[in-house]
Design a protein that fits this description.
The complex is a heterodimer of chains A (73) and B (528). Chain A is mainly alpha-helical and 73 residues long. Chain A has helices spanning 2-22, 24-27, 37-72; strands at residues 30-32, 35-36. Chain B has 528 residues and is mainly α. Classes of the chains: A mainly alpha (73), B mainly alpha (528). Chains A and B meet through helix 1, helix 2, strand 2 and helix 3 of A and helix 6, helix 10, helix 11 and helix 13 of B.
Amino acid sequence: MALALTTIMVIVYFGFVSLIAFDKPLLAVHVTPGLTLGILLGVLVIVSTWLLTWVYVRWANTKYDAELHRLRK
Amino acid sequence: MLAILLQAAQAAQAPPAATQIGEPNRVAMGFFFLFIATTLGITYWAARRTRTTEHFYAAGRTIGPRQNGFALAGDYMSAASFLGIAGLVSTSGFDGLIYSTGWLVGWPVVLFLIAEPLRNLGRYTFADVVAIRLQQAPVRLAAALGTLATVTFYLIAQMVGAGGLIKLMFGIRYELAIAIVGVAMIAYVLFGGMIATTWVQIVKAVLLLCGAAILAVMVLAQFGMNPARLFAAAAEKFGDGVLAPGKLVSKPLDTISLGLALMFGTAGLPHILMRFYTVPDAVAARKSVFWATGLIGAFYLMTFVLGFGAMVLVGPDVIKGVEPGGNMAAPLLAEHLGGTAFLGFIAAVAFATILAVVAGLTLSGAAALSHDLWVSVVRKGHASQQEQLRVARLATVLLGIVAVLLGITFKGQNVAFMVGLAFAIAASANFPALVLSMFWRRCSTTGAVASMLTGTVSTLLLIYLSPTVQVDILKHSVAWFPFKNPALVTIPLSFAVGVLVSLATPERQAVEGYQYLERRMHLGAVEE
């Protein structure tokens, strides 16, 4: 789980960075007036960190801790 | 519609012809002394509770997850991220976002891979974890080297930044400003240890988040609370280019290299890693990263708004006119929107920010000197509580003085690259060794040491050969090494060296010790 989430985070961020590095025109496209795809994706990267940490904490608080509790006994 | 926007933009544009920045500001002084008084009060309270090394390094492991989340955010949101990113966005637009996202995406990695195992395996420093099943002395020597290198460069950047900013904002002398920072920081750490440092971070984080939030709302209020209208106004005035990747990221691989350093550097910063020892258990460590990620993410979203706000409302030329690096964007914006009083508040917040970060850095450096070097290497683990505390305090004073001296030595130098350097060393020297020792059974003492040394030395060398030093500072026409940030080379190199050397020097004890490590990594120490 931890590894899978790490991989997702790496893919999300380096996907974003690669777009910045290799496809600048795409990020300059306007989604709505004033909001470019680049800014939107940047904000989504930030939102994705919140989502991923939330998913992990949910998983760890329930599944992982229960498993540890069982192991301790 | 556009006409209205334009009108609004132009009405708001009226540049503050005379800024109060650089003048001694009464409100700023007032807020600043209030902050110093409060934090020294906290330090006095904390000093009476700091009796053992457990208190000094780890606040007695009594910090709650939410408190630690705020303290982590406080430790992490340096002046570079507040003033620096706002300034970067205000002068070059979108490109600043690369830094804000990069500085944030390291946090989930810390949460998924580092926080809980670190809390379960170590006591005070990350070297505790690397050394747990390996030979103590060589591992701790190498880890202390990596820690001190990271801390030193980070400190230089913060101190020089502090001196310059305080001089600009309060109109006092550079050396005096550095000395004030040094004395206050030594007082926090020396007397109050981790308990005082933690609460200073919490106070600072709350102040900084509130200041940024108020400022962001004031900016957005000018644009009907709609960020898109703010961006549109920026594009209207300065061209569409400000909303898309621009000149800061001309070389693709350099951008990726920077991203790597930012992402994995966070997971190797000693003052951040140390914070996980202040909470009671791994569950609390986990929750504290969740808080920190939320707070820091929100903060970076706000700095983005502040940056564009400063671009539209103050204007890049005015900002660069006050300070060429653009660092005064946020304070100028505050003055524009809220007058001298609000400028004073934001200036005091910026000062508090720097002060808190250097305190955290100094404490982690002192832990490496006393806990890793003195107690574990020199005294082989046989040192009384009193002696350990005495050495830790001595190390604190020593580091504080060194920080002040370095700050004065590097006066007026371009030190912006040193934060990047600190992250690159953390990502290449500390992070690979930490990961290999925790997750790879066959990691050996020689392998871990070789990996840490390779990370430190190769990063220093490549930074020296990079365009940042060769072209920007030494004024040579070409640099030997093409990237400004070496992480793309040094992180894989340290991993490779760690793996190859470990395979070449099999260590039976280390392999046998892995089972113990693995169990303790999940279940925590039995004796606690």
